[in-house]
Design brief:
Layout lengths: L1 H18 L27 E9 L1 H5 L8 H13 L3 H17 L2 H8 L5 E8 L2 E7 L3 H15 L4 E5 L2 E11 L2 E10 L2 E8 L4 H7 L14 H9 L5 E6 H9 L5 H10 L1 H6 L6 H13 L2 E11 L4 E10 L3 H7 L17 E5 L3 H16 L6 H11 L4 H7 L5 E16 L2 E15 L2 H8 L18 E2 L15 E5 L2 E6 L1 H9 L11 E6 H15 L5 H4 L6 E10 L2 E10 L3
Antiparallel strand pairs: 1-2, 1-8, 2-3, 3-7, 4-5, 5-6, 6-7, 8-9, 9-10, 10-19, 11-12, 11-17, 12-13, 13-16, 14-15, 15-16, 17-18, 18-19
Helix pairs in contact: 1-4, 3-4, 4-5, 4-6, 9-10, 9-12, 13-14, 14-16
Length: 575
Amino acid sequence: MKKALIATAVIAAGVTAYLYQQDSTSSNHAQVPQVSELAYVPADTLFFAGQLTRFPVKQYLTYFSPSYPDDLSAELELELGQSKEPAARFIASLSRQYAQAVASPDQFVETFGLADQMKGLFYMVGLLPVLRYEIAQPDALWKMLEKAEQESGLVAKKEQLKGVDVTKYTLIAENDAELELVVSVNNGWATITANTNFNQPADLLQALAIEKPVQSLAQTDTLQTMTTQHQFDAKYLGFVNHVALINGLTGKDDNQFSQMLNQLGGNEIDVEMAELRTEACQNDFADIANHWPRTAFGTQKMVITNESVELNAKMVIESNSTVLKALASMRGFLPDFTTSAQNKIASIAFGIDAAKLSPAVTSIWTDFTEATYQCEPLVSAQQQIKQTNPMMLTMATSMATGVKGVSLSLLDFALSEQQGQPNIDKLDGIVTISAANPVALFNSVKSFYPPLMDVKLPADGSSIKLEQYIDLPLQLSQSLELAVKGEHLVLYRGQQAQTLADSLTNQALDTNGFSNLAVDYQAFFNPVFQFLETTGETIPPELEMLKEANMQLYFNTDFSTKGIEFSSELRTNSL
């Protein structure tokens, strides 16, 4: 059964991954589309992810066709052939059909009965997961399920609920646990959900979109507020409701989640969570949740053409806490050439103001330890944290005073084999340390490396050759140069790196971010695969799928007045 549940999770993760995409162009003033099915989503759902405009799933799969690892496929075949549990064989059959379908755009839409473009929703009704999507050919879905029935021997139960045909598959039937997979098609939408021993019949009717909740997501301004506040394009939107989650766990709110959780755990829940379900804890944790109410995510731009894919997305942990101000105070400097994935193989940068790091941590420490809590677990946590001393961080960062950022960029490289050992034939890269006084920083650090004690950096920006002072493996010391460029200490090698080093002379030490990461998959893996092929090494199966990857990825983490923000950009080259 464990393997069956894992296989179920794989299917859910795969389908949800597709719902995370959408076709749009960027808009800072987007309006949330009117989608009638939002009327069936509870306003207090713990989780929501919605593809609110039709996503070109078939076209998308021409670029990204995920494949199952051979060992997982073999395990599914073994489960299907040897398991004595019909439910396990049923899930294994569905997993295998999914794995076969996802490898081909035509087969995928045919297997699941999709049109070339589709809308979809994934959300929770209490603890019941609900997956809904527009379906063009319902017979295809039933054919897939019937095949799984035949291969597994699991018998479906067919019934009508308020005039809607419903098919149920029993996956678990034990004294203290019951779980059914429930499928229906109604009004052009397929619905896949669960029925358990801890939900009520009315909950299942809501999950099947047969009856509407008392208050629905469509009756709130949640999605529009998110869209406006975070500049989403309103085509794909989602959130995690921290308030409903915390208040449900503590029992402060008698919502569907709390009711099902209580039913699932019986009396054990009250015993195990007794400390957290006191009135004091309910109020204290509710206050914390209100300061971190939601994680919102969505797309800001996505364009899929026959030549390329361009996707911008963002996730924001929303906050109005004073902690956010402390985190934002640590922001430092990021070089402009690290703020995209273009014209490089990879880069990573951290914009951290070392002088603000200790005060920020101290501020967060003080805010928590001095907060007025009545909840015993929180009071106990306060006492434990008071035993730590954030002043130790001040000592640790004293050597880095004035530093506002560091970065590493790999621009080009080539590998070969010499006498059975790998050799770097070409390396073009740059390391930067941005500081208010880079010369003073170098002078304070060089004392830890005696060969550099007598080295003086030119003030005019010219470089010194480090080969005579440093001996690194793989001949990395060759052509390695060190220079001060404006307010930046720069270690570099190669022509492209020198160009970037020179560009830093005109980059002021502005506070412009916290961290970023960029990688060009093809530019990175091509030299690696070429090296492996020349040496006769077998490319590992888990890397083989990256051989044709042509995408560039860029990630950015930052702090704003809205919360902790995680942004991503994905670009592909022409097929």
